[in-house]
């Protein structure tokens, strides 16, 4: 369903912002000389209000292109601070920004790029309490977040408010892009009624991401946003675009509106925002993976027991390429191979399992205990905590 | 029928790191069964404990969602491409 798109807002005659200054005409000349944009389109861009949720990997190219294109009002939502690991892909920030709130660094960068536009900042986590209030003033919402609860929250809020949600998500070298909640079109829940249970799908922190991938996906989100505003071309409404940077291949799948969708279907059962952490099976700060339940050992305790000469078998459940970055001289069995390589382990010995942060190894401990291993401990906080508390020469990643 | 099943990035670690698998299958159910027989680890990622396909995993035959065809009974023809498309959430990992 490659529907012809409608214009979410049109320039109002007599509005003082419905004109371009001489300098703006020069700035946007490469738009103005194209019939698909022209003066009409540029004025629509100037009057458009777009909310970018997240200013990270996807939000960076998105914010830059929307600001450069002259989108008159851009809202930014983020609560995070810039850190060193962001710079591999979050091109809004530079090394001097480390430690600064992302929203502040992003605003400065976008203002430098285009001083004529208005930037609204929301230095907060998007929640069920504040979402409708933050979203209501914008024409289009662009979802550049990184977690399932916020994805469902943004979707439901967009459906409730009737605002298109320009969606992009990424994993390693693969991206998905579409437009949800466009009037008459499908929403995120039509595609995925429920999120995966925590722990079953690796996060970007575990899975990694090719730095340029969010650049490509975020730029496609920007293109779709600009097209929605100027009302030209064929939008991604009803189409899921899949991009594989490794194969360098785009594919397209049909997206249908589900008549039984709980939020946008004929008889919706969700008519207001819910508790999305609970919906996604996440409670409190940490995910509800088995991490809390399994027996643990702290890095300091492990160090002193090793120094004492205790017989401990160190099991590393990370991937081989992670082992190359740093290791504790443990026996490597990636979590995904543990069930079929369990015979490599001696259940009579005391085993300490570890990974990067302690999450995968908690799963490993739980699995081993269910397989009859009695003396298995999880290294609390993983190799990251080992670096913090025991040996700072072990690099963190 | 000779079909190709495309495995998405998040599931490749459980499928011998393969991008796609060619196999003989008459319908979607057989194609997925063929896959989980070959790669046992995949099973818990595709199916819940009660044996139903997980709701965050969609299966497409060519460019059409099997939920709008005959679901797992959807017949396959030679050359069809079956895609497994799970939800991914990444964007701006903090």
Q: How would you write the strand order of the largest sheet of chain A?
A: 3-2-1-4-5-6-7-8
Radius of gyration of chain A: 24 Å
Instruction: Give the structural class of chain A.
Output: alpha/beta
Number of strands of chain A: 13
The multimeric state of the shown protein is heterodimer
Overall mean pLDDT of chain B = 91
User: How many domain modules of chain B?
Assistant: 1
Indicate the percent of residues in helices of chain B. 10-25%
User: CATH superfamily of chain B, called what?
Assistant: Beta-grasp domain
Count of separate DSSP helical elements of chain A: 16
Largest sheet of chain A: 8 strands, mixed
N-to-C CA distance of chain B: 45 Å
**Would you identify the CATH architecture of chain B?**
Roll
As residue ranges, the low-confidence spans of chain A are: 1-15, 284-291
Task: Tell me the β content of chain A.
Answer: 15-25%
Task: Report the CATH C-level class of chain B.
Answer: Alpha Beta
Q: Major beta sheet of chain B, specifics?
A: 5 strands, mixed
Portion in helices of chain A: 25-40%
Describe this structure in words.
The complex is a heterodimer of chains A (397) and B (94). Chain A has 397 residues and is an alpha/beta fold. Chain A has two domains: 22-279, NAD(P)-binding Rossmann-like Domain (Rossmann fold, 3-Layer(aba) Sandwich); 290-389, 3-Layer(aba) Sandwich (Oxidized Rhodanese, domain 1). In chain A, 33% of the residues lie in helices and 16% in strands. Chain A contains 16 helices and 13 strands. In chain A, helix 7 links the parallel strand 4 (140-143) and strand 5. With 94 residues, chain B is α+β, with helices and mostly antiparallel strands. Chain B has a single domain (2-86), classed as Ubiquitin-like (UB roll). Chain B has a five-stranded mixed β-sheet with strand order 2-1-5-3-4, covered by helices on one side. The radius of gyration of chain B is 13 Å and the shape is globular. The A-B interface holds A 54-59, 78, 80, 90, 143-148, 151, 168-174, 176, 191-196, 200-205, 207, 209, 214, 240, 242, 244, 247, 251-256, 258, 319, 334, 336, 339-340 and B 8-10, 13-14, 19, 40-41, 44-45, 54-56, 58, 60, 63-65, 67-68, 83, 85-94.
């Amino acid at each position: 369903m490659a529907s012809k798109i409608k214009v979410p807002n049109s320039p109002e005659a007599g509005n003082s912002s419905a004109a371009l200054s001489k300098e703006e005409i020069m700035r946007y000349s490469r738009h103005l000389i194209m019939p698909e944009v022209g003066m009409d389109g540029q004025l629509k861009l100037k009057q458009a209000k777009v909310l970018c949720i997240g200013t990270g990997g996807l939000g960076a190219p998105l914010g830059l292109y929307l600001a450069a294109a002259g989108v008159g009002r851009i809202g930014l939502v983020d609560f995070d601070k810039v850190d060193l690991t962001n710079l591999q892909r979050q091109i809004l920030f530079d090394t001097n920004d480390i430690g600064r709130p992302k929203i502040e660094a992003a605003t400065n960068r976008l203002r430098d790029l285009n001083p004529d536009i208005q930037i609204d900042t929301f230095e907060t986590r998007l929640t069920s309490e504040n979402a409708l209030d933050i979203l209501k003033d914008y024409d289009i919402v662009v979802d550049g977040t990184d977690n399932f609860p916020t994805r469902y929250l943004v979707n439901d809020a967009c459906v409730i408010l009737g605002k298109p949600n320009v969606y992009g998500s990424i994993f390693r070298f693969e991206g998905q892009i579409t437009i949800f909640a466009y009037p008459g079109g499908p929403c995120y829940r039509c595609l995925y009624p429920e999120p995966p249970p925590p722990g079953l799908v690796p996060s970007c922190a575990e899975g990694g991401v090719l730095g340029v991938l969010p650049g490509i996906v975020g730029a496609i989100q920007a293109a779709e946003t600009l097209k929605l505003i100027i009302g030209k071309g064929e939008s991604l409404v009803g189409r899921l675009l899949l991009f594989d940077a490794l194969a360098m291949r785009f594919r397209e799948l049909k997206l249908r509106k589900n008549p039984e969708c709980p939020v946008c279907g004929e008889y919706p059962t969700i008519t207001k925002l819910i508790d999305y952490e609970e919906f996604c099976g996440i409670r409190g700060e940490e995910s509800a993976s088995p991490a809390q339940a399994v027996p643990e050992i702290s890095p300091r305790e492990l160090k002193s027991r090793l120094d004492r000469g205790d017989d401990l078998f160190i099991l590393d459940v990370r991937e081989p390429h992670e082992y190359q970055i740093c290791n504790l001289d443990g026996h490597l069995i990636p979590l995904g191979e543990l069930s079929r390589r369990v015979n490599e382990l001696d259940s009579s010995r005391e085993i300490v399992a570890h990974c990067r942060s302690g999450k995968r190894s908690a799963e490993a401990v739980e699995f081993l205990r269910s397989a009859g291993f009695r003396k298995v401990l999880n290294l609390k906080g993983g190799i990251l905590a080992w670096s913090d508390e025991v040996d700072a020469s072990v690099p963190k990643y | 029928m000779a079909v190709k099943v495309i495995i998405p990035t998040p599931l490749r670690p459980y499928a011998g790191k393969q991008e796609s698998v060619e196999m003989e299958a008459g319908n979607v159910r057989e194609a997925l069964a063929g896959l989980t027989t070959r790669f046992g680890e995949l099973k818990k990622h595709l199916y819940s404990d009660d044996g139903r396909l997980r709701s965050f995993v969609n299966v497409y035959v060519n460019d059409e969602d099997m939920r709008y065809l005959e679901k797992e009974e959807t017949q396959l023809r030679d050359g069809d491409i079956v895609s497994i498309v799970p939800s991914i959430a990444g964007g701006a990992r903090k």
